[in-house]
Each structure stands twice: as C-alpha cells, then as structure tokens.
Amino acid sequence: MMSLKDISDYFISVGLATVFGTDIYIGKIDSQNEEVLGLYTRTTSVNELMIGGLDNTTAEQKNFTVLVHWNTNMIESEDKAIDIYEHFRANQTPTIGGFKVFDIVCTSGQPIDVTQAEKNNIHELVLDYQINYNRI
C-alpha cells in the first residue's frame, strides 16, 4: 500500500522540495516556519477487493491532502500551490514508491485557500488528491 512517506520521497525526487526550498512534513507541520508542505491522509480512500479476492485485485487508491503553508504574501503562496497542481497535471502516470500510477486526480479541483487568523499571518492552501495505482 502506498504511504505518505512514498509521496514525500516522490516530491523530493522530482525537485518539488528543492525548487521550493522547503521542508516536507508528514502529519503536523511546524507552523512557526514559513515555506513548508504538509502531507495528510484523507479518510476517503476506498480499496475494495474484486471478485476472487486479493489475487484478482490489481488497483488501489491513495487519497491525500497537500497543505501549502507558505508565507505572508497570498500571491506567492498561491503560486507555490499552483506549481504543485501543474506538476501533477503534467505528470499523470509517475512511479511513486515503486507503484505504477495510472491516474492522479485533484479532487479539490484547484488549490483552496484555508488561511485562518494566526499570529504569523502565513497563508495556507490545500490540494486534495486521489492517486490510482497498480498493486505490486
């Protein structure tokens, strides 16, 4: 089963972390820092067994959220979220964690602003994704 660590490693391998000069967190981020990404599992993943059981089940899903906790400039923050969106839009069938992906869907449709009043005034946007991949 694909993990958030697999997705984090993918972000690093394709330069998303290097390009952004950021840390990638799995789960809770350090909200005191600017320019960080958080990866979270969404509870909507449904991996159903096909008729005949696991041996006949060839595909699984991984649903996750990317939190872009960027800086105090909304335009720059949104630009970083759009960079991630455009990367997955242009790369629909990568290999992530050894799993061959056959479809990536941004289920939120676009980056969504979820900025809340906080003392640092750092803008946050989220992107929700569904990755469909072949089981190993």
Helix count, per DSSP? 3
Q: Class in CATH?
A: Alpha Beta
Separation of the first and last Cα atoms: 9 Å
As a whole number of angstroms, the C-alpha radius of gyration is 16 Å
Uncertain runs are: none
Based on Cα principal axes, name the global outline.
Answer: elongated
Q: Any idea what the CATH superfamily is called?
A: Phage tail protein-like
User: Order of SSEs, N→C?
Assistant: HHEEEHEEEE
How would you characterize this protein structure?
The protein is of the alpha+beta class and 136 residues long. It has one domain (4-134): Phage tail protein-like (STM4215-like). Helix content is 24%, strand content 32%. The protein contains 3 helices and 7 strands; from the N terminus they run H-H-E-E-E-H-E-E-E-E.
Short description, anyone?
This protein is α+β, with helices and mostly antiparallel strands and 136 residues long. It contains three helices and seven strands; from the N terminus they run ααβββαββββ.
